[in-house]
Amino acid sequence: MRKIFYRVCLVLVLSAATVVANEEVRQVQEELRKRNLYFGDINGQATPDLANALKRYQERKGFPATGTIDDLTATSLSVQRVKGAVAGPAATLPDMPILRSDRASQLPDALRIALQKEAEENPDAMPSPPPPAEQPGVSQDLTPQRVTQLVQDYLRDAQTSDIPAQTRYFAYPVEYFNHGRQETSFVTKDVQDYVKRWPERNYTLLQPVNFVAAEREGETIVEFLIGYQVRRGKYQATGKTKNNWIIRPEGEELKIVAIQEQRVRE
Questions:
Q1: What is the pTM of this model?
Q2: pLDDT of residue 113
Q3: CA separation for the pair 21, 71 (Å, rounded)
Q4: What is the CATH number of the domain that holds 158?
Q5: Residue 98's domain spans which residues?
Q6: Is residue 128 part of a domain?
Q7: What is the radius of gyration, based on Cα positions, of the chain?
Q8: Four-CA torsion 107, 118, 246, 130, nearest 10 degrees
């Protein structure tokens, strides 16, 4: 009877351990995704897919291809080494995506393979960041008040469980995070999943919204910084993200034609 009790306790301990995400692993996943070497969930969990992505990166850099996060690889990826399994708020963080962009990439297989092959040839290459945002010329007929109001409305609705309210901001097909061009059905399902995954969400605009004319006529690049807090039962996550949109007018409204976000490390 005592043996059975100890076995049950061991199972409970191991089960609890598996729901805790590793912050160091999460950072590595983020960096390898930026380089188009990793296409899985950003969830802080060491997986075979992540190990293979690490090996590809290490081989091209001339490092020992261990598939693990050693000091050399972490330094090369600008990842902060973390002592122990978790760090700070990650102690109550489950092994699931936090941001909407943390879900596994839904790019078509042919495009994903092409991007991965290109990345393996140049493991340090990353997408060029958008130009620093600043107020565009008057010819765009956009005011700071109008763009800021759009962002504030979006963040307000993102805190609700109203799925149509959250998806009405996009012009479809929309360049949706790391998933390529997606139609209404994909975005709707993704928002539904996110609301279910994190039923309590709070977003705060931390800085003035900046914007600048995009290369394509009639489109505008929008940049802003937010603080987020999401919660699911005893699990919670807080942080900041830098957000980039491309918007354009459709009738009397402004619509998002491309959206990206990136977690800001403290």
A1: 0.82
A2: 82
A3: 20
A4: 3.10.450.50
A5: 2-121
A6: no
A7: 20
A8: 150
